[in-house]
Specification:
5-stranded mixed β-barrel, 1 helix, single chain, 2 domains, 4-stranded antiparallel β-sheet, mainly beta, elongated, Immunoglobulin-like
Length: 228
């Protein structure tokens, strides 16, 4: 083999080895169907939403306490798609995937024939990170011990503020689109370019990062709003 051909061949082998090393080192859960097959998620494999929380107690009690419980979230628009996260010794779990809307959250006992410990319908805005806080599973019921908080990006479509309180309506979108009513009080932090602003300075068309407490329906009491 000529010197130049040998050099090109060796370069190709090194490049292929690097590619397989990088790809092989990635651990991405795209979701599985009901037969346990990896399917790449409902929107081509993107993981745009997340739900997390900590199970602090299970009644009736189980030998494993709060560990080895799987939180399954079923994609509302694609019922054969499920995204999962399993608790460790602390009871913490996190599920990432594409499941905005009102998906079902099911807690599965991995140590007892995968029986369901409890299930509930939750509200997840597009591109939202939902923090459920501390949770107790009590005889099939999910009991939230803290406020449910949410962080998400959305576009402002309506402003009904006076001075520094009132409400704004925003549109969260990621394939699905949901209108969210955001309540603003005098204690809400409002920021633009690291400066404090008033509520009536929020303008239609702006993209906002909103964090706050999830209320009934598609509504949030905002703790902080940042103009992106």
């Amino acid at each position: 083999m000529k010197s130049r051909q040998l050099k090109n061949y060796l370069s190709y082998i090194i490049l292929v080895t690097v590619i397989f090393t990088v790809v092989g080192g990635c651990d991405v859960d795209f979701g599985t169907d009901n037969n346990g097959n990896n399917n790449g998620g409902s929107d081509g494999g993107t993981t745009s939403e997340s739900v997390e929380g900590t199970i602090v107690d299970v009644l009736p009690s189980r030998d494993s306490g709060v560990s080895n419980i799987t939180a399954d979230i079923m994609d509302e628009d694609h019922p054969n798609m499920t995204f999962s996260g399993t608790t460790g010794n602390t009871g913490f779990f996190k599920v990432e995937g594409s499941f905005s809307g009102t998906p079902q959250l099911d807690f599965i006992d991995e140590d007892n024939n995968q029986n369901s410990l409890a299930r509930i319908i939750i509200n997840v805005f597009p591109k939202a990170r939902v923090k459920l806080g501390d949770i107790r599973l009590d005889s099939g019921n999910v009991v939230f011990l803290d406020d449910i908080t949410v962080i998400f990006d959305a576009d402002l479509i309506e402003n009904d503020c006076i001075d520094n309180s009132g409400s704004v309506k925003v549109e969260a979108s990621n394939g699905n689109t949901i209108d969210v009513l955001v309540q603003i009080t005098n204690s809400t932090d409002l920021e633009r370019d690291n400066d404090n602003i008033t509520c009536n300075e929020l303008l239609k068309g702006q993209t906002l990062e909103i964090s706050g407490v999830l209320l009934v329906g598609n509504s949030v009491e905002a703790d902080r709003i940042v103009v992106q």
